[in-house]
Amino acid sequence: MSFLDWKIFRKKLNSNDSSIQYLLNLVQMKTKLLLNLLLLACINVMQAAELISIQDFDVKPGNSAAVNKVNLQKAIDWASAQGAAL
């Protein structure tokens, strides 16, 4: 049913028919709730997509193996606490 069909249907309703009006309001509330939940899910996915590079933790090819080992462990510890990916 298109938006215009809903408008016509609502105009045809008798103002005393509260059960149909209640059902229409319920459908509208459920639609708004689903759209809001979808929006929140999209925002959550966008925030999760911000990946952190291990180079942000100073793990670089020019460093010694010992320094990179310590820095990589710091990155792993941070990522596991945040539930993030490196």
Defining key terms:
mainly alpha, rod-shaped, 86 residues
Topology readout:
Blueprint lengths: L2 H10 L5 H31 L16 H18 L4
Describe it:
It is a single chain. By secondary structure, this protein is mainly alpha-helical. The protein starts with a helix and ends with a helix. The mean pLDDT is 81. Helices cover 69% and strands 0% of the residues.
Global Rg: 27 Å
User: What is the multimeric organization of the chains shown?
Assistant: single chain
Succession of helices and strands: HHH
| Principal-axes shape call | rod-shaped
What is the total tally of β strands?
A: 0
End-to-end separation in angstroms reads 46 Å
- Count every helix, treating DSSP H or I runs of 4 or more residues as helices: 3
Sheet-strand content, in percent, reads under 5%
Share of helix among residues? 55-70%
Give the helix/strand class. Answer: mainly alpha
How would you summarize what this structure contains?
The chain has 86 residues and is mainly alpha-helical. It has two domains: 1-50; 51-86, no CATH class.
